[in-house]
Amino acid sequence: MIIDIHGHYTTAPAPLGQWRDAQVAALTDPVQAPDPAGPVISDDQIRESIETNQLRLMDERGIDVTVFSPRASFMAHHIGDFATSSAWARICNDLCHRVSELYPDRFVPGAMLPQSPGADPATVVPEIERAVRDLGAVTVNLNPDPSGGHWTAPPLTDRSWYPVWEKLVELDVPAMVHVSTSCNPVFHTTGAHYLNADTTAFMQLLAGDLFADFPGLRLVIPHGGGAVPYHWGRFRGLAQALGRPEPEESLLRNVYFDTCVYHQPGIDLLLDVIPVGNVLFASEMVGAVRGVDPRTGHHFDDTRRYVEAAGLSAEHLAAVQEGNARRVYPRLDARLTAQGR
């Protein structure tokens, strides 16, 4: 089968956004506070939003299963405080769980975390526990910059993050390192901030020794790793200058990259530089880049075309499209196995 490990509920029914607008408005005018129980969204509204969008495209492109998490740009951890993010994360995670219940063979839930600038990272641990144990989440999206483009958080190797890593290892769940909206006008959200964050996270990991303390931790860096594959020689040279081991030795037992790269040369480079065992199929549809490439006549985010044209052997193609995901996301594998797949 083909497993897409990077999907977001970007087409959620309108009441979700309306609830969030009211929540944000209530930060300055408490009278506008929405129902704390969350928005009223029917199963039919969910079906309409999914079947005309993500599910339709999955069927057209031959994608069997998508790991489905809340819309990344909507996480907006810089808004309000921890209580704000906690309520918002709960509602968004519950909604993705409902999608997975309505379409158990096609969608598997991921979760966002209730992060907030300046808050102790350990405050997200209860939502990790709830999302994984109660909602069936097979991964979480972890934001290395809750400030939204101002980078006030400590690096991922800082000990303040250790309770998060401990919980993920305990639950045997990987994290995708994924930022949210940029509120810094210097950084366009999807064109700069996302890719900057991917690159920054990798460099933080290269400069530190996180995996010596957490050898079982698995982190996925999305969007093809940002600048990492393209500048692999630079990172190798920096590792050497810092007295660190080669990245293949120090990081690639624990760090993985997805295929959300939207042209053939980019995918070819990714698969040439990064070992096949560290690359997982993904498209991030319906996401940041939704248009049709006039040079090919196909959607930019139809990444299956690029991966299958990259010249991989049948064994390696199967690993990228299915096997690696089942290995890196053991709870996903257990869910599929229980379904007889």
Automatic annotation (TrEMBL):
<keyword id="KW-0456">Lyase</keyword>
<dbReference type="InterPro" id="IPR006680">
    <property type="entry name" value="Amidohydro-rel"/>
</dbReference>
<protein>
    <submittedName>
        <fullName>Amidohydrolase</fullName>
    </submittedName>
</protein>
<dbReference type="InterPro" id="IPR032465">
    <property type="entry name" value="ACMSD"/>
</dbReference>
<dbReference type="Pfam" id="PF04909">
    <property type="entry name" value="Amidohydro_2"/>
</dbReference>
<dbReference type="InterPro" id="IPR032466">
    <property type="entry name" value="Metal_Hydrolase"/>
</dbReference>
<feature type="domain" description="Amidohydrolase-related">
    <location>
        <begin position="3"/>
        <end position="330"/>
    </location>
</feature>
